[in-house]
Design brief:
- Strands 1, 2, 3, 4, 5, 6, 7, 8 and 9 form a nine-stranded mixed β-sheet that branches.
- Helices cover 33% and strands 28% of the residues.
- It contains five helices and nine strands; from the N terminus they run H-H-E-E-E-E-E-H-E-E-E-E-H-H.
Length: 240
């Protein structure tokens, strides 16, 4: 008798709320199943294509940059981490970290390629050589042209923290650029440039991870070359 009373009370309560609880229970069950399926389908790793993507209109160098032959060396990775192929992580809603790696080239080569492309767009003559330089003056080789450009990766990271309703992307880059006179085997200019960004979005995708890391990388090297100082230093270095 008591069970019948409880059932009747439940039915009345459901009618008072506007209907049968069955469809709501089904929707909740489907939602939970989708969460489980999506969690199970999460990739073991994310890969992004690191490259230069202009963030602004690139203006040619004030002087005729074609007169100066620049050779860009592979960068030195000085990030304090065991695996320097790693460029970030996706933190799933359950706390699980998933690594983000470059798809085609190592970060040290990707940064050098981005700088090489920007220098070319800025009007400088960029040699096709891609030497490895340890940033010491004594190891500069005469075959490396007129001006040698190298540097260090101090910070390079993209992170996405995932919740059930939102994905927060953050990216940051800090690069040290070093310019050297090849024939004199002398470093004449150093500068540090950095950039950061953040984005909130409802979806997680490799395309957005790629856009964020390329955005800060491109912005950092653009900041290093914009303004008159870098061009002036190069002109002074090659004066007879």
């Amino acid at each position: 008798m008591m069970n019948r009373d409880n059932e009747a009370a439940t039915a009345v309560a459901c009618r008072n709320r506007g209907g049968n609880p069955g469809p709501w229970l089904v929707r909740i069950a489907v939602f939970l199943c989708l969460l489980v399926i999506l969690s199970g389908c999460a990739p073991k790793i994310y890969n992004v294509n690191m490259r230069y993507e202009p963030t602004k209109v690139i203006r040619p160098a004030v002087t005729d940059g074609r007169k100066y032959s620049l050779t860009v060396a592979s960068f030195t990775d000085q990030r304090k981490m065991e695996d320097t192929l790693l460029i970030g992580r996706v933190i799933k809603s359950n706390g699980t970290p998933i690594p983000i790696l470059p798809r085609y080239v190592k970060p040290t080569d990707a940064v050098a390629a981005a700088l090489r492309e920007l220098l070319s767009k800025s009007g400088y003559a960029v040699a096709p050589d891609r030497p490895t330089w340890d940033l010491n003056e004594a190891t500069i080789r005469p075959a490396w042209g007129t001006i040698l450009v190298g540097g260090t990766i101090d910070v390079l990271d993209v992170t996405c923290v995932e919740t059930l309703t939102m994905k927060r992307y953050t990216a940051k880059a800090r690069l040290t650029l070093i310019f050297a006179d090849v024939q004199k085997k002398k470093i004449f200019y150093r500068l540090v440039s950095d950039s950061s960004s953040s984005l909130d979005h409802v979806f997680l995708s490799e395309a957005r991870l790629e856009s964020q890391i390329n955005g800060v990388l491109s912005d950092a090297i653009e900041r290093a070359l914009e303004g008159p100082e870098t061009g002036r230093q190069i002109r002074e270095a090659v004066k007879p």
